[in-house]
Automatic annotation (TrEMBL):
Database matches in InterPro entries: GDSL (IPR001087), PLB1 (IPR038885), SGNH_hydro_sf (IPR036514)
Signal peptide: 1-31
Pfam family, one: Lipase_GDSL
Protein name: SGNH/GDSL hydrolase family protein
A GO MF term: hydrolase activity
Highest taxon above the source species: Bacteria
Enzyme class: hydrolase
PROSITE patterns given in the database record: PROKAR_LIPOPROTEIN
EC number per UniProt: 3.1.-.-
UniProt KW keywords: Hydrolase, Signal
Length: 299
């Protein structure tokens, strides 16, 4: 009886061992817990993450001031949006929208909400209008009029400038969290003064009220005039620092890296009516700077 019991025990243990071996084989694992030799291994590539920045956005909205409206590029004291660096259709300019979307695409999928005379305080309202179009890219150029006031004391304080830019970015992000933003730096106004003051006609136009904080008494070189222009210059640099800092906090925002500020506009790139705003050639240079920034490889 005891011998029969021992035989039954040995048979039970053998059956359990066979079942365990079969289970291991089905699982495809070896004794060490790895893949069983000969087991199939998936070779499907891992999906690539979607980049944060699309170098070919499908629509463009522009916000900003007179530069983006092409002011004084075609006729005296007149907007000329067809030559705008951002959204114009002029073949001479090759705007950012045309370069990205093609001429037909730009005609139907680009919009210009900039306004001559606009300051940073106007940007949140312009942005609110732009977001209704749901653009994939918003191009921003604003700040020159914040420095171009009737006096140094009237220039927009830096912290107000920052608060208004942050408000504009919030307006965009609350509606369109994935829309990209390109921010152009404020031009070097002192450079524009130094070039434009060579034109007698330009200086007469300046007296109509174009950027008096920098261009007033254009030929004066006394201490007061020099200090006034230096104060305007410093404020422009402060504005550009704010633009860079606020943009850097947004993962889908790019600046021009200061290229517009550093660009050495000559008389050929300035309006032949006011020797201050960009000419058609100057607008083309702004478009080229923007296009390089928007299409540069990135994360």
């Amino acid at each position: 009886m005891a011998q029969s019991t021992r035989r039954r025990g040995r048979r039970a243990r053998a059956v359990l061992a066979a079942v365990a071996a079969l289970a291991f084989g089905v699982a495809g694992c070896d004794a060490g817990g790895g893949e069983k030799p000969g087991a199939a291994v998936s070779t499907s590539p891992s999906p690539r993450p979607t980049p944060l920045w699309d170098t070919r956005p499908d629509s463009v909205a522009a916000v900003g001031d007179s530069i983006t409206r092409g002011f004084d590029a075609c006729a005296v004291l007149t907007d000329c949006p067809e030559v705008s660096w951002a959204t114009g259709d002029s073949e001479q300019v090759g705007s950012l929208a045309v370069r990205l979307l093609g001429r037909a695409g730009a005609a139907g999928r680009s919009w210009n909400y900039a306004a001559t005379g606009a300051r940073m305080e106007d940007l949140p309202g312009q942005m609110a209008r732009a977001v209704r179009r749901k653009p994939e890219l918003v191009a921003v150029m604003v700040g020159a009029n914040d420095a171009c006031r009737e006096s140094v004391a009237a220039m927009t304080p830096v912290e107000e400038f920052r608060a208004d830019f942050e408000a504009a970015m919030r307006t965009l992000r609350e509606a369109l969290p994935k829309t990209q933003v390109y921010v152009a730096s404020v031009p070097d106004l002192k450079r524009l003064w130094s070039q434009g003051r060579t034109s007698a006609l330009g200086k007469q136009i300046w007296k109509l009220g174009i950027c008096p904080s920098m261009l007033g008494d254009a030929d004066a070189t006394d201490t007061a005039a020099t200090e006034r222009r230096a104060a305007v210059q410093q404020r422009v640099e402060d504005y550009n620092e704010v633009l860079g800092e606020v943009c850097a906090k947004d993962r889908r925002c790019r600046t021009d890296g200061g290229e517009v500020y550093e660009y050495r506009f000559g008389t050929a790139q300035l309006s032949r009516w006011d020797w201050f705003h960009p000419s058609v050639e100057g607008q083309a240079e702004l478009a080229e700077i923007a296009y390089r920034a928007v299409t540069a490889p990135g994360p």
